Amino acid sequence: MARNIKLYYDFMSQPSRALYIFLSMNKIPFERCPISLQNFEHKTVEFRKNVNRYGKVPCIVEQNFRLAESVAIYRYLCRAYPTQLHWYPDDTIRQARIDEYLSWQHLNLRAHVSLYFFHVWLNPLLGKEVDVKKTERLRLRLDEVLDFFEQELLCNGRQSFLAGDHISVADLSAACEIEQAKIAGYDPCEGRPHLNNWLATIREKTNPFYDEAHKYVYQLTTEHIFTPVVKEDE
Amino acid sequence: MARNIKLYYDFMSQPSRALYIFLSMNKIPFERCPISLQNFEHKTVEFRKNVNRYGKVPCIVEQNFRLAESVAIYRYLCRAYPTQLHWYPDDTIRQARIDEYLSWQHLNLRAHVSLYFFHVWLNPLLGKEVDVKKTERLRLRLDEVLDFFEQELLCNGRQSFLAGDHISVADLSAACEIEQAKIAGYDPCEGRPHLNNWLATIREKTNPFYDEAHKYVYQLTTEHIFTPVVKEDE
Question: According to the UniProt record, what class of enzyme is this (chains A, B) (predicted)?
Answer without folding.
Answer: transferase
